[in-house]
Write a structure and sequence with these properties.
Layout lengths: L4 E6 L2 H9 L8 E4 L6 E4 L1 H5 L12 H7 L2 E3 L3 H15 L6 E5 L2 E5 L9 H16 L3 E6 L2 H13 L6 E3 L6 H6 L11 H9 L5 H5 L3 H19 L16 E12 L2 H21 L2 E12 L9 E12 L2 H15 L6 E13 L11 H20 L38
Parallel strand pairs: 2-4, 7-8
Antiparallel strand pairs: 1-6, 1-7, 2-3, 5-6, 9-12, 10-11, 10-12
The protein binds a DNA duplex through helix 8, helix 10 and strand 9.
Length: 422
DNA sequence: TCTGGGGTCCTAGGACCC
DNA sequence: TCTGGGGTCCTAGGACCC
């Protein structure tokens, strides 16, 4: 018998994280904003009920926020990342076969959980224990393929009767479930494919399942063909318990206001490169390609400019110092005076395992010093806090710094922010 | 009138995910 | 005034090579 997939999805994850530490938020409309306090990226059930849509800019719902006392938070990724790790850790109490799919979702193979109880019972157990252990409410969808588990999860969220768990394995309800799932809700169908499918009368998951596979392939590449098979119960997407190595690492930010000066862009790009290099070393990788991009606002009326420069390194590196030099060279190439920049970013690619970096022809003493300094910097910053030791160019307090006016305390990751019991 | 053919690599763009 | 960030995969088409 094949796998039985359970998709565990945290409900309104960012909002749920905030609620753990401030129970007064229970029952109230709460939203969490994207970087720079720009758009809504998470909504409590009450906020959804007010008609606040995903991705809407904050300034467009100001009226609603005031009238209904919506509680607004800046995003607090340190907190969400930490809670996510706890949730995933809790899931591993049930089985080692956990695929961490995103910050708030995981797939499990229930066939490999012992003892095998009725799947629904198992799902209810997971739900109850996760709530008790982590404070995060979750929804569980169970089916014979990942795509069907997604469908089950989606339905479980909206059905009272499901009580947070829906098992569609060998279910007489399967066809009804598919029929009730609008085509755009299917995993892998975005706006473009949805429009294309609807134009052909394929408006729900059942019709998509019964679509000719070759037609699906023509319209949506092999991804679409695979998707149709998955809806038919033929598993094409296996559980991936070990994450594949990263192919690229990006750090980019929008600025809260216009940035025109080269010096300020240089500061921001230096900080972005520092963050990228930190992530790189944490993954045990070195990068052979550095890309820097800068752009003006896509919404402003003024003159637009957007450009990027990519540099290929002779030797892949994981040293902030070295990568920084290349990033600033790239920035110089694309910087033009007289524009109001609103966003910049750095991307690393061409990854190789750090341990396998090519030996250099002139492996001199200076280079060896470079190589030794980064682990020390990482260690100090881990112990005493980010940017305790940094390169002079990377000033994290510049005017370009991301706005986060309503961020909750770093409850779980900064000692001085840990809640006190009184 | 006819103007080689086939393989590989790279890139840009488009689609999707959370 | 104010509009996020970080990823992946697939394909077509051009460059290049023999």
């Amino acid at each position: 018998m094949g796998a039985v997939f359970a998709l565990i999805d945290c409900n309104n994850f960012y909002v749920s994280c905030e609620r753990i530490f401030d129970p007064r938020l229970l029952g109230r409309p709460v939203v969490v904003l994207s970087n720079n306090d720009g758009c809504v990226v998470a909504r409590s059930r009450e906020a959804k009920a007010l008609g606040i849509r995903m991705g809407v800019p904050l300034f467009q719902i100001k009226g609603l926020v005031e009238t209904h006392g919506v509680v607004v938070y800046s995003s607090n990724y340190a907190l969400y990342g930490d809670i996510s790790a706890r949730v995933m850790g809790a899931l591993r109490e049930f089985t080692d076969d956990v695929e961490v799919y995103s910050i708030d979702e995981a797939f499990l193979d229930l066939e490999r959980c012992r003892p095998v109880r009725p799947y629904r019972e198992f799902g209810l157990d997971i739900r109850e224990k996760l709530l008790k252990w982590t404070g995060v409410p979750v929804t569980v969808g169970i089916a014979r393929t990942k795509t069907l588990a997604k469908v089950a999860n989606h339905l479980a969220k909206t059905s009272e009767k499901a009580a947070g768990v829906l098992d569609l394995t060998d279910s007489p309800f399967l066809e009804v479930a598919l029929e009730r799932t609008p085509v755009e809700e299917v995993w892998g169908i975005g706006p473009a494919y949805a429009a294309l499918l609807r134009a052909r009368g394929v408006d729900n998951a059942l019709r998509l399942r019964d679509m000719d596979v070759r037609a699906a392939r023509r319209a949506m590449t092999v991804v679409g063909a695979r998707l149709v098979m998955e809806l038919r119960g033929v598993s094409c997407l296996p559980l991936e318990t070990a994450p594949p190595p990263k192919k690229s690492i990006t750090t980019s930010r929008s600025f809260p206001g216009a940035v025109s000066k080269y010096e300020e862009l240089k500061e921001s790009v230096s900080v972005f490169m520092t963050r990228c290099a930190e992530k790189l070393r944490r993954s045990g990788l070195a990068a052979g390609v550095v890309t820097v991009f800068i752009q003006t606002s896509q919404f402003s009326a003024g003159p637009h400019y957007s450009n990027s420069a990519t540099l290929e390194l002779i030797y892949a590196s994981d040293s902030t110092q070295e990568l920084l030099r290349h990033a600033l060279e790239a920035l110089q190439r694309i910087y033009r005076r007289g524009y109001e920049y609103r966003k910049a970013g750095v991307m690393l690619s061409g990854m190789v395992p750090a341990a396998e970096t090519t030996g250099r022809l002139f492996d001199d003493e200076t280079l060896e010093r470079f190589r030794r300094v980064m682990p020390v910097v990482d260690m100090l910053n881990k112990k005493y806090g980010r940017d305790t030791v940094r390169f002079a160019a990377a000033n994290p307090r510049g005017r370009w710094r991301t706005k986060a006016a309503r961020r909750s305390p770093l409850y779980t990751t900064r000692l001085s922010d840990v809640p006190l019991l009184k």
